Every structure is written in structure tokens, then in C-alpha cells.
């Protein structure tokens, strides 16, 4: 029997901010970013391109529609950047075929297989470009518009 209790996600930050469950989800997303020191707050510089940011909200459900988790994701609006001006290279996190192919080998060799879920990943690479991002809505440390995040 399917549950008719379908939970809706907020359509804006203002709506999400009124509900403690979504505030908790945003804090849960923001804390690892701060803990990993992904950026620093700097004054907004004249003539520098700044990437916008926004929140995306998702209600993760399990079988029969019951709610597993409320997830808020910070999204940098990278589509506003221009290749050759704002960046030279792009990177995407993808699974490696060698990892998938190792499974039959592990069976043959009788190796124990361990699976894990990764909540967040951080690309740990030195970048040459200066990348500036708008402060997260709801988590502004300094006056919004005058200060931005500089990606480390």
C-alpha cells in the first residue's frame, strides 16, 4: 500500500528558512564546507567575475513514500562563467571502470569487498584561477554584495 503522505520541498530559501527541518539540512551542508576551509571571505573586487549561488532542496524517500532525509545542496551557478576567461579546465567526479572491473577479480581471489557511501567529496587541487562565489543565502558572514567567497 502506497503512502499518500507526499512531502513537498520548498520553492525558495525564504520558505525553507521557516521550517527547522530545512534549516538543519542547510547547516548539515554548510558545516563540512567550513570545516574543510574550501574558501575564504574577501571584499568583492571591481571587475572580477563572481559566480552566483543558490540552494537546491530535495526530499529523499524510501519504499512506500516514507521520508528518508531532507537534503539541501549548495549550488554554484557555474554556467555564468566563460571558458578561457573564467576557467581553462573542467573536472567531474566519475566512477572509474577499473573499480567496477575489479569485482570479478575479487571474487576469484576471494577478497573481501567493502562498500561505502560518501556524503561529500572535495576536489583537492591547487587552482591557478581566482574563483569568486556569492555568499550562501542564510549564511552570510559579512554584508552580502560587498563580500564574496574566494575558492581556495
Separation, N- and C-terminal Cα atoms: 50 Å
Counted by DSSP, the helix tally is 3
Whole-angstrom Rg: 20 Å
Q: Structural class of the secondary elements?
A: alpha+beta
Fraction in beta strands: 15-25%
Report the count of strand segments.
Answer: 6
The amount of helix comes to 10-25%
Keywords:
152 residues; alpha+beta; 4-stranded mixed β-sheet; two-stranded antiparallel ribbon; 3 helices; 22% helix; 22% strand; disordered N terminus
What does this 3D model show about the protein?
- The relative contact order is 0.23.
- The chain has helices spanning 13-17, 20-35, 97-109, and strands at residues 39-43, 50-51, 53-61, 67-76, 132-133, 147-151.
- It is of the alpha+beta class and 152 residues long.
- The chain has one domain.
- The N and C termini lie far apart (50 Å).
- The strands form two sheets. It has a four-stranded mixed β-sheet, with no helix packed on it.
- It contains three helices and six strands; from the N terminus they run ααββββαββ.
- The model is unreliable at 1-5 (pLDDT under 50).
- Helix content is 22%, strand content 22%.
